[in-house]
Write a structure and sequence with these properties.
Layout: H1 2-8, H2 15-24, H3 46-54, H4 61-67, H5 80-95, H6 100-109
Length: 112
């Protein structure tokens, strides 16, 4: 069992220590979809899994600090439909030669 666990973490870990880490994550890591059965398949193709682990050496310290920071409140995150609308609007403005700065000036100038 400890051999399987050491494959998925940075260093070998005893099963009892792994169990303590899992228990400490209750309420924090509940997004994990449920218990994994011994021998169950990973929901990623091996190529994607290898790429995921390869990013460990490709991410700078600054990027790592950024991605390990606190997440925003869900209410402050733009809804996917609204985001898609914003992207379409941005692309439409770009297609007529209006970048982000000129789009802002045009909108600001049209206000009463």
């Amino acid at each position: 069992m400890s051999t399987l666990i050491s494959l998925w973490v940075a260093k070998p870990i005893q099963p009892s220590e792994a169990a303590k880490l899992v228990a400490a994550g209750i309420g924090k890591h509940d997004w994990i979809p449920g218990p994994a059965s011994l021998g169950s398949f990973i929901p990623l193709p091996l190529g994607e899994l290898a790429r995921l682990y390869a990013t460990n050496t490709e991410i700078s310290r600054d990027e790592e600090t950024t991605i390990t920071g606190e997440l925003p409140e869900i209410a402050s995150v733009v809804h996917p439909t609204d985001f898609a609308d914003l992207v379409r609007e941005y692309r439409a403005l770009e297609s007529v030669g209006m970048g982000p700065d000129t789009a802002f000036v045009a909108r600001a100038g049209s206000r009463p």
